[in-house]
């Protein structure tokens, strides 16, 4: 009787260990390999603008930002004047939730402020700040600001 009880305890301990290790593996996988939607959208947008892909980047703008930048041709001119002829490397420096108590960005939009560093081959460095928010289930770019280093 005592031997079978010991085996049950050993089996339960082993099963608990497997569950804990499985949970840690899932957590590690998602924290390292699966990126949040706002980061994926931010990275896609940044790569589209530095690679002069106006259609991709323009389609990622929120309706509010599209009103500010104008039509696709205006957006293309802005990209050309900023990036044509340069090689640019980018790096995501931070991602922080935007505190939005009013709410300025709309309910359930989950706005995130992403900070990127843009290094141009002419030696200039810009800090680019974008706000990414969820709109109708899709991540959109709602703000873009920058400053030179």
How would you describe this structure to a colleague?
By secondary structure, the protein is of the alpha+beta class. It has two domains: 1-34; 36-148, Nuclear Transport Factor 2, Chain: A (Roll). Helices cover 47% and strands 28% of the residues. The protein has five helices and four strands. Strands 1-2-3-4 form a four-stranded antiparallel beta sheet. The model has no long low-confidence stretch (mean pLDDT 85).
Number of domains: 2
Order of helices and strands: HHHHHEEEE
Mean pLDDT: 85
CATH class of the largest domain: Alpha Beta
Radius of gyration: 23 Å
CATH architecture designation of the largest domain: Roll
Q: Which structural class is indicated by helix and strand composition? A: alpha+beta
Per DSSP, the total helix count is: 5
Number of E-type strands: 4
Shape: elongated
Q: Beta-strand level of the residues, as a percent range?
A: 25-35%
Distance between the termini: 75 Å
* Fraction in helix: 40-55%
């Amino acid at each position: 009787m005592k031997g079978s009880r010991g085996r049950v305890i050993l089996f339960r301990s082993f099963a608990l260990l497997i569950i804990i290790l499985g949970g840690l593996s899932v957590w590690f996988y998602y924290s390292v390999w699966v990126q949040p939607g706002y980061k994926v959208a931010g990275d896609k947008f940044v790569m589209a603008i530095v690679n002069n892909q106006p259609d991709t980047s323009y389609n990622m703008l929120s309706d509010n930002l599209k009103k500010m930048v104008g039509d696709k041709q205006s957006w293309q001119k802005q990209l050309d004047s900023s990036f044509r002829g340069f090689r640019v490397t980018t790096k995501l420096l931070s991602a922080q939730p935007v505190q939005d108590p009013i709410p300025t960005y709309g309910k359930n939009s989950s706005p995130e402020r992403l900070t990127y560093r843009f290094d141009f081959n002419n030696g200039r460095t810009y800090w680019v700040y974008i706000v990414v928010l969820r709109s109708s289930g899709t991540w959109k770019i709602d703000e873009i600001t920058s400053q030179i280093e």
